[in-house]
């Protein structure tokens, strides 16, 4: 059989990506247990995120996006994340192929909006990334989108998105706290949103705030194009002095009490409108 380079590229790429993770020791700590029957053991909310589902594309593409979101969410919902265990989006969701049940949806490829099997999964990755950020989890790997394709209609805040591409880009997160956590997901097409939340066996003892700042705007290639951006994102954490996690007391803490423990620079290239 005459195999072209394109046919060889995928398995080689996947092997190289896995080898890099193996050298870092990540796969030995991947979490893979989904325990919906144990949900009542995690009564304390640590973080949550809501992401709108874009209403773009043909009816078939919109339906396929929902299908992909629900399929991927079913492989993450009620996932147990014990202390020092690692969540890998690609490990949990698997390779987005037709044989794995995924359908064609919107994807960003080399700075352009296109259609590919598994399209729409970045929305799910972005959503859970924000939940992990808000719960002070350790971000081991995260990638931004290559372009700001939606412009002002984007479904994420610049600098706080997560792009995934099997064999290239993954979202990898560690539970660096001493508290066992559980992830929960809901895909709600009837109201056009995805929600994720992280629950603990003990109350969260800290507060988190995020700041994303525009460092530079990169001019659009055409008058009706979309600008590019360079964004700096910093996460600040401080201890929660009040044991009640819902209390608003001391919500305006002095800046000296906040300590940065995560920062990232996101670069979005300018593009033409799709």
Percent strand: 25-35%
Main sheet overview: 4 strands, antiparallel
Tally of helical segments: 4
**Amino- and carboxy-terminal Cα gap:** 38 Å
Q: Which spans have pLDDT < 50 for at least 5 consecutive residues?
A: none
Percent helix: 10-25%
Q: How would you sum up the global shape?
A: globular
What would you report as the Rg, rounded to the nearest angstrom? Answer: 19 Å
Overall pLDDT level: 89
- State the strand order across the main sheet: 1-9-8-2
Helix/strand class: alpha+beta
Extended strand count: 12
Q: Topology as H/E string?
A: HEHEEHEEHEEEEEEE
Q: Tags for this entry?
A:
274 residues; single chain; 4 helices
What would you say this structure looks like, in words?
- This protein is an alpha+beta fold and 274 residues long.
- The chain contains 4 helices and 12 strands; from the N terminus they run αβαββαββαβββββββ.
- It has a 4-stranded antiparallel β-sheet. The protein has a 3-stranded antiparallel β-sheet with strand order 3-7-6.
- Strand 8 and strand 9 form a beta hairpin.
- The two termini are 38 Å apart.
- 34% of the residues are buried.
Short description:
The protein has 274 residues and is an alpha+beta fold. It has helices at residues 5-24, 59-74, 89-93, 121-134, and strands spanning 44-52, 79-81, 86-88, 104-109, 112-117, 138-141, 172-174, 181-188, 193-200, 206-218, 228-239, 259-268. Strand 4 (104-109) and strand 5 (112-117) form a beta hairpin.
List the helices and strands and how they pair.
Elements: H1 5-24, E1 44-52, H2 59-74, E2 79-81, E3 86-88, H3 89-93, E4 104-109, E5 112-117, H4 121-134, E6 138-141, E7 172-174, E8 181-188, E9 193-200, E10 206-218, E11 228-239, E12 259-268
Antiparallel strand pairs: 1-9, 2-8, 3-7, 4-5, 6-7, 8-9, 10-11, 11-12
